[in-house]
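Quick question: what would this complex look like in 3D?
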Amino acid sequence: MEYESKLSRLISILGIAFGALATISIGVYLVATINPRIPGKTVIRWVVDPNPIRKEQIKLFESKYRNIHVINDPGAEPQRLLTQLAGGVPPDVMALYNPQTIRLFAKNDVLLDLRPYVKKYKLPIEKLYPGLKPYIYYENKIVGVPENCGPYVLFYNKRMFREAGIPYPKPDWTWDECLEVAKKLTKYQVVGGRKVPIQKGIYVGTHDWWFFIWMYGGHLYSPDGKRCIMNDEKVKKGIRFWADLRLKHHVTPTPSEAQSMAPTGGWGTDALLFRESKVAMMVSGRWLCIQYREQKDLEWDVTSVPHGPNRVTLLASKCYSIPKTSRHRHEALIFIKHLLSKENQLLVANYGDGIPTLQDPEIEKAFAYNPKYPNERNNLLHIQEMKYARVSESSPYINVLDQDAIMAREFDKMWLGEQSPDKTCDEIARQINAVIRRNLANPNFLD
Amino acid sequence: MRRLSYKTKEALAAYAFLAPNFLGFLAFTSIPVVVSFVMAFTHWNIFKQPFWVGLENFKNLLWFHREGGRLVPNDPFFWQYVYNTVYLMAGIPIGMAGSLIVALMMNQRMRGIVVFRTIYFLPTVCSGVALLILWKYLYNSDIGLINKTIRLVGAFIFAKKPVAIGATVFAALIFGVVVIGLIAALLAFLQWLSEKIRFTWPEGLFRALMFASGACIFILIGIYGRAFYNALSMFFAEPPDWLGTVQWAKPSLILMSLWGGLGGYNMILYLAALQGVPSSYYEAAEIDGAGPWQKFWAVTWPMISPTTFFILVMSIIGGFQGGFMIANVMTGGGPAGSTTTIEYYLYQTAFEKFNMGYACSIAWFLFAVILVITLLTWKLGGKVVTYE
């Protein structure tokens, strides 16, 4: 009898516990899924980085479409987006930052195919730069629209060049010419009998492998993506050159040197090193102009990334996509249309964070010269470089994180002098191909 | 309406107080644990519904296949990360010994001991990320305090030949003594194991082996004296890039964890255990003529053995589950993947590659390893732990 009473009490308690849990869960779900309500307005959520320009963009949009209110939900990391999508609280417009992420989302049928809406909403897809196709299409579907972009260019410190008596570089220069200049711009001082670098010629990061894979016309993957061809002689030649920049000619800092050269206890990032005149040249994108403008004593300009026989540079962009599950599809489409509008593109042009993606003479003109920044007279170069820009390669048969992990691990060995550049290329090809073979045999590995 | 009895009211109050914890446990621990076990047998990338794949995740994680005549793991990364995790756990016994020594020091009756205890405990209450960044700078090969000090000491020692030779001899002596100490520990362990299988070593064998190994080591040091000198001068002139090389990255992290761990919770636990040893035992030992060393081995060590055992078990569990913050803040898991642990790999698989099923299989493999090792430790430890 006592046992039965205890059992029934236990069952009651469990019942109460589950009931309370269910109530809390439903409450949390309801709170999370309901967007803030503003009478007479539809609220849409735009998940993107919290760049200061977003406020101006939203202001411009809301002045045109008074019945739509846009919330900038900052931080568009794939983890965050996935959590929102899986939790049933999809954003209305979201930024995807590389073709691999776009492919991941598109392949899993998360993104709205914009083809049926191109005509209806007058989306000017055909006016976007052709090089941006990987940010727009997935298997002929239109899954996103890029609003700005930036090919990698070479920033150089004009004062350092002047003081060393070196003429400013021309846009068609080669890596060999760059190396000779970098040697002249690399300086050491002797501290306690030790040569310590105080200035390096050029900063090329340990992950900037694309320039050198492509330098002699090589590729990471075969056209069908089923084979890694990093062991191709064209690639090896480029990687040998890259390794020599650091290991033989010492014109680019090692990660440790970068950290030690960084001023004010900074992290030794490429941007900081260039800003503080610790490196004379640096390969990066247009977005760094924003912080270099603030450094009043920094005289800088841009030219093209040096090239080998094959003139090519890396293209960075992001696209805006609409999840299929968005509750405000119409408003999201209007917003996307606005992002590609001339007014918004002019705003992007004036801000100068990246090149506006719409090919239009008036927008190009606005981007080429902004009277607020009279020193930036070479902006047109960014647009001209679009001819040579291409996105990083990937294969549908290997997760890009696995690919990057293999490459980073083997390149680390190269930087540590544990294996030659040729061996590194061979090892990368062998390991990536092994993973591709495994994935082809077992598609569960792929998403 | 029937009034509730006092007993019922009391029980209801107790359940009401227990409810928040129970609900929290249910929602955030027990349900996820059960779900993760099921997920380990599925493929789930968050986007789509999970589907059943049976043991495939475990096969891909743990199994090998033939490639060009050699055996290759299905997962090319996993075993390296297991090795890294186990390697980093080498710091556990050193850390425990250090914590015990610190606790013994902090157990002295002297003025201002509370200040010392606070100082030793301070790293534990400091922000982990801030400390990791601090250590990153200490380890910098060019501007780091460690390398600057080494270079400074090197410049002083190797400025004059006699000083350099003297320093080399001193270093060789220390090196020799450490190696002999390690050999002694190994031999003692072997002797203990032999006794377990009822095999007693012949009288004098231990001493003879120690003598022979000691002689060999010092002869070898003598033969390679010049090379030792050169290596030492090289080390002081150009100290290693601690976090930037595969050889030094893991030992550097162990060293760093010792700094924070010696005076941490382990020290507090040891201190509590030491203060719980009845003074009458020491008095009795003193009457029997025991010295400080004998008192430690005969009284202190057995009396604190349950604490040692507890710390060991918890450290092993923590060791298998560790490494995420260090990899995330200090090393990014590099160089060449040498500081990536199972935990960091699990995070990457789940939240960067979105392969949840596979990540769950890693988690359950980790659980199985921890369970087996804890049970083994429990079984072996139970024999050597003394309960009062």
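Answer marked as accepted. The two ends of chain A are 57 Å apart (CA to CA).
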